[in-house]
Amino acid sequence: MVPRALTIAGSDSGGGAGIQADLKTFTVFGVFGMSAITALTAQNTRGVTAIHTVPGRFVRQQIDAVVTDIGVDAAKTGMLANAEIIAAVTAAVRDHRIAPLVVDPVMLAESGAPLLAEDAHEALRRDLLPLATLVTPNVYEAQLLAGIAITSVADMCAAARALIRCGARAVLVKGGHLQGDAAVDVFDDGTTVHRLTAPRIAARHTHGTGCQLSAAISAGLACGLPLLDAVERAKRFITIAIRNGLAIGHGVGPANPLAWLKEKESP
Predict the structure, then answer these.
(1) Do the Cβ atoms of 6 and 222 come closer than 8 Å?
(2) What is the dihedral of CA 213, 79, 127, 76, to 10 degrees?
(3) Domains of the chain in sequence order
(4) Residue 130 CB neighbours (<10 A)
C-alpha cells in the first residue's frame, strides 16, 4: 500500500507554504497526501492580507473522515491559528492514536504576520507537544515555547532540552535565522544531541521552508524511516529546495520542493 500522510494546517493561496507546500512535498517523496484545513489565508509572495479560520469542530470532522476511511501512516501539524483548533486537533490525535506526529509550531508568517493567537501558546505547549514524535520550531518559536533567549547553537541545545521536558519525544530546533557560515539545526531525542550542518545559502526565495522540512520528515516517517534518518534526509532535501528557490511573484518566492527530484544525490 502507498504510504499515507496527513497535514493539519492552513491554506496558502500563493501555494508556497501551508498545505499546498506539504502536499507537494509528500508527492515528491512518493507519499499519498491528505489534508485537514485549519485556516484560509489570502497570501502571496508579499505577505498575508487576510485570514479566515475554520471552526474547530469542522477541523475535527476532516480528520475523522480521513482517518476512518483512508488511514494515516504519519501526520504533521502546521498553522493551528487558535486554542479552539488546538483542542480539536489534540482530541483527534488522542482518540485516533495518530502517530507518528510531527508538530511544526507555526506562529508567524515569513512576512511577520501572526499565525497563532497569543493566548493559544500555552495550549500548544501543554496539550499538543506531549503528543509529538517530533517538534520542529525555528529559533523564534523555540524562544517563545521554551522561554529561553537564543543567540547561539548552545542556546538552541538548551531550548531543545527544555521542550523535551514539556513532553515532546524529540525536538529539532532550526537555526536558519542565526548568523554564521553554516546553517546548524539541533536534534535532541532526550538521550542524544545531534548537530545537523549544511552550508548557509545566500538565498532570497525561502518562503515555506519550515512547512516543506516538516512535511519531508513526515513523509520519511510514513515510509517507515527511523526518526533521525527522516530528519537527516529532510535536511538534505530542504537545502536543495532553498538552493533552487523560485523567483516568482514580486516578493519572497518559495523554496522549490521539485528540485529534489533532480538533485537528490547532491551533497
Answers:
(1) no
(2) -40
(3) 4-259 (3.40.1190.20)
(4) 12
Mean of pLDDT values over 121-147: 94
* Residue 267 confidence (pLDDT): 47
CA 238, CA 256: separation in Å to the nearest integer?
A: 8
Give the model confidence (pLDDT) of 143-154 as tens digits: 999 999 999 999
Pairing, β 134-135 against β 74-77: unpaired
Give the model confidence (pLDDT) of 46-59 as tens digits.
Answer: 999 999 999 999 99
C-alpha span between 223 and 25 (Å, rounded):
13
- pTM listed for this prediction: 0.95
Positions annotated as catalytic residues are: 174, 206, 208-211
Q: Which three cell numbers stand for residue 120?
A: 493559544
DSSP codes joined into one string, the chain: ---EEEEEEEEETTSSSHHHHHHHHHHHTT-EEEEEEEEEEEEETTEEEEEEEPPHHHHHHHHHHHHHHT--SEEEE---BSHHHHHHHHHHHHHHT--SEEE----B-TTS-B-B-GGGHHHIIIIIGGG-SEE--BHHHHHHHHT---SSHHHHHHHHHHHHHTT-S-EEEB-TTS-SSEEEEEEE-SS-EEEEEEE----S--BTHHHHHHHHHHHHHHTT--HHHHHHHHHHHHHHHHHT----SSS-PBP-TTHHHHHTT--
Instruction: Give the integer Cα–Cα distance in Å for 140 and 23.
Output: 25
Name the β-bridge partners of 138: 174
Select from 170, 241, 235 the least CA-distant residue to 17.
241
Q: pLDDT band for position 3 (50/70/90)? A: very high
Of 115, 103, 105, 84, nearest to 12 by C-alpha is 115
